[in-house]
Amino acid sequence: MFHLIKLESKKNKLGWFIKGAILANIIILGFLCIIPAIENSEGIQTFKTATEFFTISGAFVRGIFIVFAAVLISKMIIDEFKNRTILVTFSYPINRKKILSAKLILIFCMTFITMAISNIVVIVCFIGLNQIFHFTSVISFTTIDFFAEILKVIMFSLASAGAALVPLYFGMRKYSTPATIISSILIVSVTCQSVGPNFSLASIIYIPLALALIALGIVVSTIRKIDCIDLD
User: Fold this and answer.
1) Which of 36, 38, 78, 81 is the least crowded, having the fewest Cβ atoms under 10 Å away?
2) Where are the beta strands (DSSP E) in the chain?
3) From the CB of residue 183, how many other CB atoms can be counted at a distance below 10 Å?
4) How far apart are CA 77 and CA 142, in angstroms?
5) Angle between the 167-174 and 177-191 helix axes, to the nearest 10 degrees?
């Protein structure tokens, strides 16, 4: 299986994904720095607590990489079925289920790793820049608090990476890239939405966790049916 995942990685040339992740980190960090800088000039405090900052930054990162995951699903799976190029892959003496499993494992791992690392990078970079430019005075916590937040980031990233596979269902129905991307945006709106000034769905891990369980069912069902799909 590891060999198949490695082959899929080379075949799809995922350098664009890494470059996109780096660019996304820069944009997210820019927003997190610009927003408090502007509002401070107007006498408004953007991040009232460190927890609020972690929630907002986490929502930004998870939202972007859920959409990135949908793009991966489209490029690696949906487009291959739509253009029938998957027939070439299925002509190899390898079980179809293993091929599709390798693609999905790669997408999940890429999403989880980049999501977790990006979240940590954004947090650390903002804290460093805040020491220089003083965007906010509330970002103060102990080492124990920091590592507790890192653990929380990993848990949220794991659940969100699973939830990011839900668009597979919508994409596979008619081999539609737009349906895949749009469904990922809907998932972002559900998992990262703020409801009023003091409540955010982005702080509730049970939502992406529930979607991850749904995604697991979708993945299992898709893999089980792969031998029955007529591509002729």
Assistant:
1) 38
2) none
3) 19
4) 44
5) 160
Secondary structure (3-state) at 83: coil
From residue 91, give the alpha-carbon distance in Å to each of 46, 86, 99, 227: 56, 9, 11, 13
| Rounded distance between C-alpha atoms, residue 226 and residue 210, angstroms | 25
Taking a C-beta distance cutoff of 8 angstroms, is the pair 226, 100 a contact? yes
Coil/strand/helix, residue 12: helix
Number of residues assigned to the chain? 232
Q: Which residues of the chain have pLDDT under 70?
A: 39-46, 138-141, 194-200, 230-232
Separation in Å, CA 161 to CA 38, 41, 97: 33, 37, 21
Q: What does the alpha-carbon distance between residue 57 and residue 126 come to, in Å, rounded to a whole number? A: 10
Q: Write down the residue that tokens 């995942």 correspond to.
A: 5
Q: Rounded to two decimals, what is the model's pTM?
A: 0.89
- Identify the pLDDT of residue 185: 94
